């Protein structure tokens, strides 16, 4: 499902246009991304929590040559589903 598909589903279940729904969803996703960029956790009740995770620098290998390469430290985004979402998905 794409952002456009979500916007169309929201528009169908409310009295707003698809363009308005897409703009609202885009703004919400931008707000989530901005909060994560600042290192803040984002919790959506009944859905789940997004959090940033620090990944340490490490040594990796090129699978074709076996040559060792240095992988720099980075920050990644993790998601933990809420129990309510897990129940909905599992039936």
From TrEMBL:
SMART domains: BHL. GO terms for molecular function: DNA binding. Pfam families: Bac_DNA_binding. Belongs to the bacterial histone-like protein family. This is HU family DNA-binding protein. Keywords: DNA condensation, DNA-binding. InterPro entries: Hist_DNA-bd, Histone-like_DNA-bd_CS, IHF-like_DNA-bd_dom_sf.
